[in-house]
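Co-fold these.
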Amino acid sequence: MPKDGGIGASTTRREDARFLTGNGRYTDDINLRGQTYVHFLRSEVAHGRINGIDTSAAEAMPGVIKIFTAADFSAAGGLPCGWQVTDRHGQPMQEPKHPILAEGKVRHVGDPICGIVAETLEQARDAAEAIELDIEELPAVVDMVAALQDGATKVHDDLTSNLCYDWSLGEENLEAVTEAFKNAAHVVSLDLINNRLCANPMETRVAIGDYDPWADQHTLYTTSQNPHVIRLLMGAFVLSLPEHKLRVVAPDVGGGFGSKIYHYAEEAFCTHAAKILKRPVKWTSTRSEAFLSDAHARDHISTVELALDADHKFTALRSKTIANMGAYLSTFAPSIPTWLHGTLMAGPYTTPLIHVNVRAVFTNTVAVDAYRGAGRPEATFQLERLIDKAARELGVEPADLRRKNFINPDQFPYQTPVALEYDSGNFHATMDKAMALADYAGIEARAAEAAKRGKLRGIGMSQYIEACGIAPSNLVGQLGARAGLYETATVRVNATGSISVLTGCHSHGQGHETSFPQIVADMIGIDASQIDLVHGDTANTPMGMGTYGSRSIAVGGSALVKATGKIIDKAKKIAAHLLEAAPEDIELKDGKFSVAGTDKSIDWASVTLAAYVPHNYPLEEMEPGLEETAFYDPNNFTFPSGCYICEVEVDPETGKVDIVNFTAADDFGTVINPMIVEGQVHGGLAQGIGQAMTENCVYDENGQLLSGSFMDYTMPRADDVPGFTVDHSQFTLCTHNPLGAKGCGEAGAIGAPPAVVNAVIDALHRGGHRHVSHVDMPVTPQRVWAAMQK
Amino acid sequence: MYAFDFVKPASLDEAVAALGQEGAQPLSGGQTLLASMKQRLNAPDVLVSLRGIAALKGVSREGDALVIGAATTHATVAAEAASDYPGLAALAGQIGDPSVRNMGTLGGSLANNDPSACYPAGVLGSGATVVTNRREIAADDFFQGMFTTALEEGEIITSVRFPIPQKAAYAKFLQPASRFALTAAYVAKFADGVRVAITGASEEGVFRWAEAEAALASDFRPEALDGLSVPADGMIGDLHGTPAYRAHLVGVMTRRAVAAAG
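Predicted complex below.
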């Protein structure tokens, strides 16, 4: 292996050079000749009937080219949902149309009504103010519980109710679960809210549509995590454009966190309008628009109950959740509270009987979809808060209660009662490591010292497991996915030995341009600087499903191993020909092919040159050239796991919580680049701490977003998070992919929230506030103070 | 943002003349005005920048008082007032973030009188005098409720004269998102009494807490405030704090300001 650039090397991120010197090329940096600008006139009311739209005065305004309404998209389809959930009665979910521009009704503040295209953005905005809207305001459905009551105002008139689906997992166990609760020695119950979030990547969304009449070719430049998915969804379902006539480019993207997975109305608008107008059409979201149009996240109300026997073994778990879908179904929304949530309810524990019920509901709010972790943070929060509460009620150490119920290392593969088969893990090892690094045993002394300073100090842990490496296509197909979830890689070796790796994954902060070449460098034994990664453009990369669900290394990296393996097989045959030996006698080491047991050898570049200048080449046996593609469809999910320990100090006078220590011990399997993995954990922890401590999307009863700017939506800042202690030494390999890698992108956001809240509860109890059994996230100073007052 | 004309006069007289035009508004650091214009919530026809008037800038000692020009940035006050009036300099150094502190000005903050801004507490708590192109206004008369001041049409703040107290400190509890004051207290001890000004808490904007002033006048220690509280009625309630929480913080922050003043 190349000492600085192979698997396991903390190679410096090569993409940072351009980012840090201002040479990144983001979608908004692209400006096309003859470009026009679109501004969307968005609904100011949460729910209303559109009785009329008068654009006549606006159309006469300077610079206005065309004002589009829903009528201009009558031939287009609605924005598709990529996952159909089947309810507990075997019926498909209710799936309303999601038009590009509002048809007949507006259903949330920010719902786009008109697209005003003008020569300049300011002209478009001026014209928007001259449009006369006649909208009859209707009662807004905001509260999820009220939305499900009989007679509630309907978000979609053509649906039978606001219920999208009533889904269960473990329905066959329902009676046994009920029986187990009856027979339990202890039952613990907890009501929880998983707070609504807005991802807020640093770069807001941008779309530029372009149409080339010479080639009858559409191009969409967009801020996407998965350009091929956008090409498929928009081409096939919305605009009826075949793939060979539609190119989707996602250049440098400034963070996604899930919010840039989905196919959004603005993308279809710009693509379509560019052809109508025969000029490029550009849209750049403002931050205010992002709050009103990016998919939001989480937003669950849950009740979760645990049954334990006299020996404190978990005997059954019951979880009931109401999940907000918002006004329309975003691309993967239905799958998040179901298959990415219910299936994680076993956690790392041997609970034999589990029943999960989820009712998804439409409301007059922005659509809700996946965000870093997506379903798994909600499941982990329920479990790890509940177990913490159980330990407190039983008077046992929370770590001991967890250990008593862990799936032990010798029990893998382990079939859970909620559909997943875990292939590997060692929960004791990560817990031991985290407790040692955090000096868990020393909390008493530290709490006593803090008390002298007037602070309440507490410690809390969470032990998470997540399902990543999404996903086996045939399995997710059975569960309702309308797409496959394989990944692809093409390894294009050039004549002089340099390599272009083409992937269907997309890098928007993950450092793929550094870590993917490390895999190839490691396998061939050449320097990683000879290898470049190409991604983000459907015109020059193979069909792939993109980047989310901590899948890129586990799935895309595995495709890359397969493709590189094919390259090595062929290169060995060429080398064998050149060395006049049998292919099976050829060894590849440090970029050199040699004949086993001899001193005969030839270097990598000589072989690659022979492939493209085949003067001395077995042409009768092999084609020239050295380029291979592999598709990799995983056999199973991967299961990263770990133990997080958070230590806080609470100011009893103000309720303010400071995180003073945070330790993360993760099992990610094989780690390609430890430095990048550490960075991914840091980012995930910051977002998990953001959810736990600061972030909250709040609507008022009329459906107005109260937290619609950074003046009220509290993104975590550098001084809100501590220095982290991160460890990934206690790993077990993924057993079913060639790298043994599990994925690391979401772990921090999954494991952190319950660790933070558990630590706060511990601090309050140590401070004598023993009546406090829970504080909802975000644990703001006001909430913590109010909890102490009761 | 709508189109507007922009003028940057070099003298106060020129500025006053320019502000006589229809639809003219003064611009100082622009930390509130420009943001509202970008959102199309404010549409002046003419922006009259006060930043080119040298007479409006600077920090100077005049006898027992510190005089600060209205167009002086928070960063300048934080640096240049530190030796003469450290309590006020510390307050200025806690406003916003570095970019806000290097653009925002004392006069702009006072004229806007945001109920959660820091400077109104420093000015009211110091018993300062607001000097305009027309007159001098005592701080007690200047602040007239949320976003409302004694300033008349066309009247420009030129400077603020701060009597320098024996001791002073500002204790600010951050609104976590905006980092304005969720509730903050400015406490200043003079030879003839103590002033306590509270910002961020009341729907009426900055106010003096008379009971606390009386208690501290005879015993300038945090313990002197034990048992004192302000009613929750009239306190701001929003996403970040209920009226009861803010009323509670008034007491906590005042005690902390007294402790910090030493």
